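Issue 218. Parser rejects a valid record. Input:
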Amino acid sequence: MASDTPLVIAVDSSTTSTKAIVVDGSGSVHATGKAEIPLHTPGIDRYEHDPRDWWRSTDEAVGQALAALPDADRRRITALSVTPQRQSFAVLDSDGEALRHGILWLDGRAVAEVAALGSPELHALTGFQPDVTPSVYKLAWLAAHEPSVLDRAAHVVGVHAYLVHAMTGRWVDSAACADSLGLYDMARLDFHPGLLAEVGLTRDQLGELVPPGTPVAALTDEVRDRWGLVGDVTVVAGCGDGQAAALGCGAIEPDEAYLNMGTAIVGGVHSPAYRHGATYRTDAAGLPGQYVLEIVQNSGAYLAGWFRTELGDPALGGRPDPALEAAAAAVAAGCGGLLTLPYWNAVQSPHWDPKARGAIVGLAGAHGRPALYRSILEALSLETARNLAGLQADTGVPLRSIRVMGGGQRSPLWRRIMTDCIGLPLTACDTEEVSALGAAVLAMSFATSTPIETTAGAMASLGDTSVPDPAGVALYSELSLLQARLYDRLADINAAQYEFGLRHPLG
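Output the parser choked on:
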């Protein structure tokens, strides 16, 4: 690519780290950086960040990436965009200082608030099922348990708005990021006054909204000079990490799905019109005015990692284990009928039940660690297949293409199981940081005055395709019918166990 064409910076601020990439218009990555974010767990089902780490890690990651570039390439950088972890938020005072740690998307403290506030009407309004993930319920928890925090709040912001302010000095958020607070009239893509009043917030605490792909402002002189950049570098409004993944893999048509086998399993399709359904949640898309219909399973690669950490080789500390993978691959598909409910982090799609817990049913003396591990991978895949089937049934649009990404798809065993459970070919995304590439699409679209859809197609890079095996599809179709019955059979026991755990906590 010509040396005078633009480069852009993309930032992906996730649950565990912030990644930064410098990208050209073909999607080629010229430099990368990464900085970890400490996770704070002050109690069971409680997950928090110090918001200052959102900016510190961004500053470090971008600094690393830029340090690897020659001066001539740094001068080509004209725009930057951020894709954040969604449904995580901070409460700040008038100086922008955090009044407490930020509460994250996977935090499960607001079960009582979900029961009190959640309703079909709220689902229809916001696009989000009653579930602990949307911030609205955790804001209601703060109003009930830490009212002084909200009383002193000048700003309530997600990760995107926090970083935009750190880089530009403006309190501006993308309409495709602020939706994850759960305070939207989603059909209008704007905050709903009644919901704000419900949790004791006012519109001016939430900042200005702009469509994704919109220029916000130039980097401040301080930030630009700190990073060794030259001239104006425009911060462009981004979108949430799932929506960005769709752009990064070029899945922009209603029959093209993305499937991220990451910490959580997240997949979805674009929709030109607002709709809501039982299986999926509805997000504001990175394509302005559109929506993403998204299935969500919070226990994704997290669950495989949990097994390796707690029950695997201690020397590996939870990292991928080739020996365990090989042993699990040698276990017969279906594990002799062993069934797992993969609800270690409750269940989102399709049941949206914050009290649900995991279960392993059908254990026998013949089952060892490899069978247990394989059963977890099968359970996650069966659940994904059921959710994608529900999504297609609701939209009436059969899937033509599924583009897969995330650390989980690098496991040949899990990729094979997922392909056979879904029963459709899965095409890998060659780019390591697909969500970051989606943010780069928005920045590059602005930098080159090219439509987002065209830019996404030009920057996406696809790899190999796994094709379902008919015998595997038949076996997992049968096993799926059994697994699907477990949730209903255990629902009342899960609720009783949850209440018992409140009275007698683990620690």
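Fixed in the parser; the record now loads. Residues 159 and 454 are 27 Å apart (CA to CA).
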